[in-house]
Amino acid sequence: MKKITLFIVAAFFAAFNASSQTLNNPKDADGFYIVKWDCNTDTWAASNNVEVDETFVMAVDVTGTPLENWLAEAPTAAGATRSLALNKWSGDGGLNGDSHRFKRIRGNIYGATWNILQLGVPDFAVATATTIGAQTYVFGQLFGFEFTSDNPGAGWWMWPSGIPEGTNINPGTESGAIFRTSAYTGTKTSPEFYNDDYPGLFESAYGTVKGYAPSCAVTTDVFTPIVNVSPVIGHEYYNLQGGRLSEEPMNGLFIDKAIREDGSSFTTKILKSIK
pTM above the 0.85 mark? Predict the structure, then answer.
């Protein structure tokens, strides 16, 4: 009976993996794809050492997959360029549907700058994702699209021969996730940013999208972000669940939203303790 059971399980996973998309990204020790791109070295990071509210470059490599051949074919729309898009979601909630489009980094590697928590607002389970030790799992479907200078969706939801429509990416892990974040510590929170702060990633298609920008446009450790010199004229305070507070807390962990004179804002996570 045990041998039969093991055979059935093995057959199930073999069939499951056969119908799953694969990438050419490296994998970590637990079998998840490494999706973090290191803009400083122009190659993959050693691991997905990124927390849920930390900005990073998300990248995929389709070398050796049906999408590589599809990208090399002549576009269907006149004058269009082919690229890749990622329909995505997480175990902690949905991720902004207006941030699917990637652009080519080099070769068959495509990506964009992300901040998962910012992409998830307001549908994200913030309290769950930002619990100390928590890890967020990201799932998705990689498909093709075509764009022109005046039409960011000249072709959409395009699936190459060899990948059934709607197939999920799966590196072969039991969870089915493409990757997972590092365990949350709350020490790597990145500044708020928006798509139209960094032109070049179809910002005209859907205007302002929080936590989404061209590859390597926004990082906190290597590249210098655009500095806004408009003075701060006020503050708003929020708890970690996104609820607005009537005044600045005297202790505990909370979010300080600083509002500038030009109408822009930025947030800082603050921890106060009573001495």
Answer: no
Q: Which amino acid is at 6?
A: L
pLDDT digits 0-9 by tens, 236-273:
887 766 678 888 888 877 777 878 777 776 777 677 66
CA gap 37, 114 in Å, rounded: 11
pLDDT in tens, 145-164: 999 988 889 999 999 999 99
- The full DSSP string for 35-80 is -EEETTTTEE-SS----TTS-EEEEEE-TTSHHHHHHHSPPSSTT-
Q: Tokens for 234?
A: 């006020």
For residue 62, give Cα distances in angstroms to 85, 146, 251.
12, 16, 48
Phi then psi for 192, rounded to 5 degrees? Answer: -70, 140
Residue with tokens 């901040």, as numbered in its chain:
115
